[in-house]
């Protein structure tokens, strides 16, 4: 059962050009709350979707910084952050999910926090807007079939890139499910949104894997549905945060001595928050073209190196370039490197996954460590000899 009504809040500003004593013209309300199931059981997950309305009669926007769903006996059960700005006259719907462990009349609270911006760029810190929601929860019928449960698992997405999404189906009934058809939809683009599975035995679970591309940064939602047993259907919704694409790619090149041969090593560092694919590295020193190399993928916040044998040591100024694919587009980055000759020997290089990585300061530290080992060994031999002579 959902209690209807309009909660209107007159709020005070506190930052920017607005003083704490001035009356704000902010008029933001939770104008409606929709509940996906008004008579759930303790086995069900429900979606509570408040509608936030900004109805101020002036220019400017309202930044919805957080929407929280709370249960008095459990605290926060779900939340959504950084939902963007809404102009006067606009609304935004925010789906939140919860479940219930026990039956009875349940009271939930929707809390909205935000910041008002006027036409001049001044801001007013807004307090908390609250709205209660009442839901009647019952025990599941012992003689009725138990609906399968759906769970959506997704990492935080990055705008313009794909993420893996898994939908898990659990069959808690005493009978097998047949003719399963899973479907995933969302605010972005879902690659091959439908999956099928012939049978799911009682007490078992299965997973369906999807690829989802988020188009825009901000709060987004994924909706999963399962059809089974010739006409039955269950659904669930999951909110995800889509981060803005951050692109930061760096290059480095060096010449190394390894196994009495000389190699040119390229290192590609991806400091961004999305992987880069089809990386092609090349370079040039004066009129001489350096050998090129390719790397399939450099994951976000990681680096990859590749080593190429060369006939002789290179010196001088090198212009190196990496071309790569990100957000379905081709981009490139360049860097000028001063190569002064071979910078390491075989003992300075640790081989990881077939690629050579130089440990900074390895030469001096390795020599010192070796000297200490030799001295300790000589000291031990002298001590044993002394004890033998003394006997």
Automatic annotation (TrEMBL):
Organism: Natrinema altunense (strain JCM 12890 / CGMCC 1.3731 / AJ2)
GO terms for MF: protein-glutamine gamma-glutamyltransferase activity
InterPro entries membership: Ig-like_fold, Transglutaminase_C_sf
Swiss-Prot/TrEMBL keywords: Membrane, Transmembrane, Transmembrane helix
Coiled-coil ranges from the UniProt annotation: none
Top-rank lineage group of the source organism: Archaea
Transmembrane segment boundaries: 365-386
Protein name (Swiss-Prot/TrEMBL): Transglutaminase domain-containing protein
Signal peptide residues on this chain, from the entry's feature table: none
């Amino acid at each position: 059962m959902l209690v209807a009504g309009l909660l209107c809040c007159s709020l005070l500003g506190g930052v920017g050009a607005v003083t704490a004593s001035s009356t704000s013209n902010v008029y933001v309300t939770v104008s409606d709350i929709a509940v996906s199931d008004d008579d759930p059981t303790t086995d069900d997950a429900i979606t509570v979707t408040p509608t936030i309305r900004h109805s101020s009669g002036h220019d400017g926007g309202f930044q919805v910084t957080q929407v929280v769903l709370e249960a008095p006996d459990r605290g926060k059960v779900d939340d959504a952050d950084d939902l963007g700005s809404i102009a006067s006259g606009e609304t935004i719907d925010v789906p939140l999910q919860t479940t219930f462990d026990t039956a009875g009349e349940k009271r939930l609270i929707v809390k909205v926090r935000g910041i008002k911006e006027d036409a001049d760029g001044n801001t007013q810190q807004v307090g908390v807007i609250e709205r209660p929601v009442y839901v009647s929860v019952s025990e599941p019928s012992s003689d009725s079939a138990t609906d399968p449960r759906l769970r959506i698992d997704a990492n935080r997405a990055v705008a313009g890139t794909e993420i893996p999404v898994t939908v898990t189906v659990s069959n808690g009934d005493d009978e097998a499910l047949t003719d399963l058809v899973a479907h995933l939809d969302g605010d972005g683009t879902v690659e091959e949104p439908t999956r099928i599975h012939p049978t799911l035995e009682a007490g078992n679970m299965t997973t369906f894997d999807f690829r989802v591309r988020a188009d825009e940064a901000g709060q987004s939602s994924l909706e999963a549905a399962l059809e089974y047993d010739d006409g039955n259907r269950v659904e669930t919704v999951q909110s995800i945060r889509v981060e803005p694409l951050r692109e930061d790619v760096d290059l480095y090149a060096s010449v190394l001595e390894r196994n009495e041969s000389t190699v040119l090593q390229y290192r590609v560092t991806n400091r961004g928050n999305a992987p880069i694919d089809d990386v092609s590295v090349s370079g040039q020193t004066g009129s001489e073209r350096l050998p090129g190399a390719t790397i399939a993928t450099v994951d976000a916040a990681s680096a990859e190196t590749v080593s190429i044998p060369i006939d002789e040591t290179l010196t001088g100024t090198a212009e190196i370039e990496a071309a790569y694919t990100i957000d379905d587009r081709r981009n490139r980055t360049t860097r000028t490197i001063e190569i002064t000759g071979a910078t390491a020997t075989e003992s300075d290089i640790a081989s990881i996954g077939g690629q050579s990585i130089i440990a900074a300061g390895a030469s001096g530290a390795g020599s010192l460590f070796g000297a200490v080992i030799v001295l300790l060994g000589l000291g031990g031999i002298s001590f044993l000899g002394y004890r033998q002579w003394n006997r």
